Structures are given as structure tokens and as C-alpha cells.
Amino acid sequence: MTKLGIILASARPNRVGEHVSRWVLDAVPTGVDVDLIDLREVALPAFDGTSSPKQGLPKETDHSRAWGERIDALDALVILTPQYNGSYPGNLKTAIDFLYEEWNELPTVLVGYGWGSAGEVLPLLETLMTRLGADVVGSVGLGFREDLSVEGELFVADEKASALRELLSTLSERSLAKVG
Ligand SMILES: Cc1cc2nc3c(=O)[nH]c(=O)nc-3n(C[C@H](O)[C@H](O)[C@H](O)COP(=O)(O)O)c2cc1C
User: Fold this and answer.
1) What span, in angstroms and rounded, lies between the C-alpha atoms of 73 and 71?
2) Ligand 1 binding pocket includes 12 (Cβ within 6 Å)
3) Cα separation of 177 and 173, whole Å?
4) pTM value?
5) CB–CB of 77/8 below 8 Å?
6) Domain NADPH-dependent FMN reductase-like spans what residues (predicted)?
């Protein structure tokens, strides 16, 4: 895996996602080039293309071209999502909607956090990414009380940390198989 993207979806000023991103970064094998993609900085507008990205027509705006190029440069992806009203935040859905072929066959791991170990958002996000052709390798859900506090203090059990490391290693294998 030469380039791993980590999408940080939450845009809140006091987001717990930032603490979760550090936990994920700690599990990334050394030597991997990481692009931490903060959707707050990417700051895409509401979807404004004149056609569905699935049609594959040239992108019409600077922001859609820049976003497409950033994802296209990745060999693998981790998406960090909070659980908002049982689903993913709207800005993550928008960022996903902006592209189509860039997600295709991209080896992807999902990391969710929320109450109930993010058990509502993870299957929804997996369905969405699979629909777009991403190669979803697996997911890890962190739960308030079990794995982290609502303020973002992490005390994740070893099993989940090992599960994440295993998924990252599978990502690496899948992305190498794609290249080779
Ligand atoms: C708009 C909104 C809706 C939420 N809905 C849920 C929910 O349905 N399930 C849940 O487990 N937590 C829910 N929460 C709590 C979030 O999981 C918690 O605030 C978490 O810290 C959000 O991630 P962030 O801090 O990285 O933004 C909600 C929070 C917000 C702001």
C-alpha cells in the first residue's frame, strides 16, 4: 500500500473524530504514505454537477476536479464516520456522491464510532460504498463507554486494535494485488 487516505468526516469544532483519527494513525504500518483527508478543510458545497458522476462526463468545477484527483491518488482508504441520527453525516454523503469511478475497486476499511459501537451507521456506509464498487474489506465500531468517552478519551480494548491492524494489513495486500 503506497498511499493510504484516511477520511475524517466530522466537521465539528470539538469533534471526537480527531481522537479516533489518531488511534487509526497509530495502527498504520510504518512506511505508508498517509493522506489525512479532513472533510472540514475539503469543504465541498452541496452537489452541484449537471450530471450524475456515474455517467463519467468531465468534471466541471475546480472543487470536483480537486476532490476527484485526491481520491484517485489513493491505493487504499479508511473512512472514519460518526453516527448521526443512526446514519453518516451529510457532508460525508456529499463527498461520496461527488465521485463515482474513483471509488471503484478502492480497498476500503470503515471505522465508526457512537453509541452501540456505531452498529447503525456501519452497515449503511458499507452498503453505500459497495454500491459504488469500493472493495470494502471490513469495519471496526467503537462504542461510547466501552471504547471511548463522549469527550474523546480512548481506551479501546486490544482485540479491536488488533482487528484494525489486521484490516489495515488486508488493505495493504489488496492494494498491492491491484497494482501488481
Ligand atoms: C446531529 C447528531 C446526531 C447524533 N445522533 C447519534 C445517533 O443516532 N447515534 C449515536 O450513537 N450517536 C449520535 N450522536 C452522538 C455522536 O455519536 C457523538 O456526538 C460523536 O462524538 C460525534 O462524532 P464527532 O464528535 O466526531 O462529531 C449524534 C450527534 C450529533 C451531533
Assistant:
1) 5
2) yes
3) 6
4) 0.97
5) no
6) 3-139
Question: What are the per-10-residue average pLDDT scores of the chain (180 residues)?
Answer: 92 98 96 96 98 97 98 98 98 98 98 98 98 98 97 96 96 79
Give me the half-sphere count of Cα atoms (radius 13 Å) on the Cβ side of residue 46: 0
The continuous run of DSSP H or E covering 7 comes out as strand 3-8
Check if the beta carbon of residue 45 is closer than 8 Å to that of residue 73. Answer: no
Using only C-alpha atoms, what is the Rg of the chain? 16
Mutate which of 85, 122, 148 for ligand 1 pocket (most atoms within 8 A of beta carbon): 85
145's CB contacts (< 8 A; 6+ apart) are: none
CB-ligand 1 contact for 117 (6 Å cutoff): no
CB distance 114 to ligand 1 below 6 Å:
yes
- Cβ–ligand 1 distance for 145 under 6 Å, the answer no
Does residue 72 contact residue 104 with C-beta atoms inside 8 Å?
A: no
